[in-house]
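Need residues for this backbone.
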């Protein structure tokens, strides 16, 4: 799959693509990433890509024309018609990172990470935003990281690319690692259980603290049951909405609810 990132600051993304465990996905071509700057498609000696907003107000707005030229060049480089027929479904979706978008979730990541997915054209806004006429003409999907505003869409683009890369076969050292992540369907969409490592007793600020004995027992069945309980408890405490979603999807058993009830939680919480 291929992702084309339209950004005014490609230098922000370049180091990240060569760093960390997910670099395997980019180095081996499982996830191809190409960086494009609309400045290369702007007019004049200064390659201007923004201007003052009509109607007044603070800040600047990204111009539609350089983005339009860049977008067409990306499509041509992909071997696609430079312009989609009116009303045609997106062949390769154009994604804008925007406060108005749907919240980035595991389901959104999994859709873009699927083997048959074509990737996307990722559009990173800056300043006060992008001329709405370009958004109306070219953007198919809007994604938000949450209810806050960043200086640009580059961090959001990196978040999507990192999450997509993690789901590619062979990128993580253990093929089951991604399946043990929070929100994954393999965990019924729950939060992950807490993790521990050496030493068995850590003398920290709260005094000596031991690893839960069940994790040292070597009994795989008891360990799996303990982790399930911890996932349920952690989700009930921190994200009850996820627990209710798992319940609505039929993923919680009577034993799950019985254990939660023993901890003071029930289906009405």
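Answer:
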């Amino acid at each position: 799959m291929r992702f084309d990132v339209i950004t005014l600051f490609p230098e922000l993304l370049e180091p990240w693509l060569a760093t960390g465990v997910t670099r395997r996905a980019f180095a081996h071509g499982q996830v191809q990433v190409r960086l494009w700057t609309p400045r290369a498609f702007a007019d004049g000696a200064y390659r201007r890509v923004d201007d003052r907003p009509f109607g007044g107000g603070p800040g600047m707005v990204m111009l539609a024309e350089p983005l339009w030229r860049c977008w067409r060049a990306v499509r041509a480089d992909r071997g696609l018609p430079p312009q989609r027929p009116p009303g045609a479904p997106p062949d390769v979706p154009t994604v804008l990172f925007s406060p108005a978008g749907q919240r980035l979730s595991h389901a959104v990541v999994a859709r873009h990470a699927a083997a048959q997915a074509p990737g996307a054209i990722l559009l990173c806004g800056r300043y006060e935003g992008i001329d709405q006429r370009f958004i109306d003409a070219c953007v198919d999907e809007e994604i938000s990281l949450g209810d806050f505003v960043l200086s640009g869409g580059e961090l959001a683009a990196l978040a999507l690319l990192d999450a997509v890369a993690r789901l590619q076969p062979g990128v993580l050292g253990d093929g089951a690692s991604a399946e043990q992540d929070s929100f994954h369907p393999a965990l019924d969409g729950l939060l992950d259980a807490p993790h521990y490592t050496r030493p068995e007793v850590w003398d920290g600020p709260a005094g000596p603290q031991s690893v839960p004995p069940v994790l040292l027992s070597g009994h795989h069945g008891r360990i799996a049951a303990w982790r399930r309980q911890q996932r349920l408890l952690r989700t009930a405490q921190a994200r009850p909405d996820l627990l209710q979603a798992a319940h609505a999807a039929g993923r919680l058993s009577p034993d799950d609810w019985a254990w939660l009830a023993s901890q003071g939680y029930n289906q009405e919480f």
